[in-house]
Design brief:
Elements (H helix, E strand, L loop, with lengths): L10 H9 L6 H12 L5 H7 L7 H14 L7 H16 L6 H14 L7 H15 L14 H17 L3
Amino acid sequence: MINFPHKVISTYRVLMKKAFNEDIDEMWVEWALEMIQAGYESDNLYILAGITRPYHQFELQRLTDKVLADLNLDYEDKLLMIRNYIYYIISTAINEPSKYLSTLKDIKDICIALDMEQEYMDFYLLYFAKDDLNESEVQWYWDGADRTNIDRIIEEVFENYLNSNNSKQ
């Protein structure tokens, strides 16, 4: 995990999106505002915080490169950026079972994009188990999971992920 020198945990999301060259959108503007509120200063950060639609991707890609360089934030290690992003979304959802399905969906999509990466297969299977249990009494993805315990199982898997990735810091 990257030990960020600041309090803005959404930086995990920003760095993953940048590592995969995703389009710049309002999420970046919101992040820039969070960074400013947290006490970070950079002319480029201020410019990013003031950007409005329409978003011109070529210019914004260059601007975000400058912002990240100003803040000494590296995004070159794509697998680390994914791991950090998953850590971020799990840590923001772990105490809110209503967010479990959407969090699992995000990780499931990452798992698929990474050709069913083994590290994320439990999340993939839990997504389909939880989704099935929302619609019916039975699921075939996670042995022993039912409507009465699926959220507890998800919480345990989330906690294990956070604990195992905390130890890598």
